Prior knowledge:
12 helices, single chain, two-stranded antiparallel ribbon, globular, about 35% helix
Amino acid sequence: MNKHPIPILLDGDPGHDDAIAWVLANASPMLDIRGVTSVCGNQTIEKTTYNALRIMALVGLNAPMAMGRTKPLIGEPIIAPTVHGNSGLDGPVLPEPAQKPLSIDASQLMAQVLEQSDEPVTIVPTGPLTNVASLLLSRPDLKPKIARISLMGGGIAFGNWTPAAEFNILVDPEAADIVFKSGVPITMAGLDVTEQALVFPEDFARIRAVGNHVAIVVADWLAFFYQFHRSMGYPGAPVHDAVAVAALIAPEILQKTDMYVQIELAGDFCRGATLGDRFGVLKKPANATVLTGIDRQAFVDLLVDAIKTYGEVAK
Ligand code: RIB
Ligand code: CA
């Protein structure tokens, strides 16, 4: 029997892996997407907003959309054109947006969705946590309406943008600190698990062979996204953000452990680090379920099955 779909909010900085995460989420009958918000991260807020709207048009995602803040809570934006290109979503031609962002900002849309929902909503951030922190700061009364935050960010064992810090957390460490101290249940898909969520070139071909319009675009996104990672020695493309969605629709393919995670805000070398207290030495209650492993083949199968839902192509 189909379980009651989980109401969710998507918040991201598309970004190739955000886009694939949204393709996965939109295809799942287990999820009910109540709203989409953009955040500045991989590219400027203008570009991630335009990309978000184009992804929504591509997959036929009809939900309210709002634009996030132009910069992190403190400091200046960091963008990642070497990874995602100057558009933030380089590669295949995409449809033009089918809607405009609302006139309210991302945290206001999040608040509206939470207020209007008759049950708690899960937030799925796959970029810097600026918008989620803004929501928590402006509407702490709505915390009970947030079921969980299933985020891509951080890395207990290592970083990627600096040796200590993962990109999403590094862009806005203050926002991450607010989120991890909020008391809202958190599932953390950090680099510890997302760098195992590798999609290999032979998987790109399997996806392309599905043949529908989404399959072709996703295969092209993967091919572009892999260029940077291949240059860094990866055997495939780590589709980081889709793990935050997989944690909701296929938790059985993931290994996890609860721990207390704190965010380094100062430090010459470690700003933005997510420090996990693996052995409980700090005697603080766990504030996150940290994902530590994934069944890679099952993850790829999940992506392929989702992409098939966008239409069978007559052979
Ligand atoms: O470190 C990986 C994360 O940074 C992913 O969310 C990617 O999209 C970028 O935002
Ligand atoms: Ca992202």
